[in-house]
TrEMBL record:
Xref: InterPro entries: HTH_LacI, Lambda_DNA-bd_dom_sf, Peripla_BP/Lac1_sug-bd_dom, Peripla_BP_I
UniProt KW Secreted keyword: no
Domain of life from the UniProt record: Bacteria
Alphabetical UniProt keywords: DNA-binding, Transcription, Transcription regulation
Organism: Enterocloster bolteae 90A9
Any GO MF annotation of the entry: DNA-binding transcription factor activity
Protein name listed in UniProt: HTH lacI-type domain-containing protein
Domain HTH lacI-type: residue ranges: 8-63
Gene3D superfamilies: 3.40.50.2300, lambda repressor-like DNA-binding domains
Amino acid sequence: MNHTSHNVTIGDVAKAAGTSVSTVSRVLSGSTYPVSAAKRERVLHAANTLGYEPNLLGRMLKTNTNPSIGIIIPSFQNPFYTQLIIGIEKEAMANNYFPLVFSSQRSPETERNLINNLIKNRVKGLMISSIDDSPQAVDHFVSTGGKVCIFESNYSDTDKVINAKTDMLGAGRTAAEYLISQGHRSIAFLSTPFNRQSRIMTLDGYKLALANNGLSFSEDDVMTVQYESEADSGLYEMEAGHKLADKFLEAKKRKDYTAIMAVNDLIAYGIIQRLQEKGLGIPDDLSIISFDNIPYSGLINPPLTTMDMPARLLGQRACHLIIDSLNSNEDHNGITLSVSAELVVRRSVKAL
């Protein structure tokens, strides 16, 4: 009899493997009930040969859970988050979990509603880059038995969640030290609001590099835009970059800056575009370095020198911890998963 993946039953797998249905169920569900290595191998081989696919609805009814992982990011516009999602998806789908991906559109209210809907749909895994200063929605998810991983967040109860981040202190220091090594002594730091821990740590790294090289820090060298919301055009970071460039040009009338550190690549794109519109050459008139190394950063003019943030790797490793928590009920809460950034030198920085 020829089977397809649509009509193969657990009984078919048991018959092909020469085992009981209960043994097949234990192997395929990841149960901790002891099954010999030989039987386990026969079951897995039979399931693979027959193309068996588990009944996810049955799994939901039996366990009262949804075999999905909710993923909430601030915006689909920034390719950094796309890379993060790709890493999460790869790990989730390899382990028979299904990613449900949402954007909060930089709205705390939308973020809270999304979390509450995940709870209503019995989703027990949540991976989130939160823009909500209030921990109540995440606390509610945890209180239902959910497992949470938070990326680059200000969430204070770190013992309740898995924390995943890039070493932004090290990244900020490395970027600033590279500019200093190229002869730059007057460096402006341009950023969106400091309402995320990652931006604060990047600034701290910049300050540390200045101090380590005998250079003074001034608050006047730090320029920000005082809002963070999804632009109607969908190009929030680019528009923020334009505004930051305008602020920088005013500040440059008072101080002879030679370089800019931009808080991410999309911000840098907007800054470069506005400066070029004003007749300034990059890097001939001004050097610029940023963070993320999103896929387009080697394609713009000039190709952007930036810190490579391994978003895919971070997403994959963080998802592994969430899945391990869900499958084994092992408590990984309080763990901080950290990855390092690497400098990618292109042509947006000039040696003085």
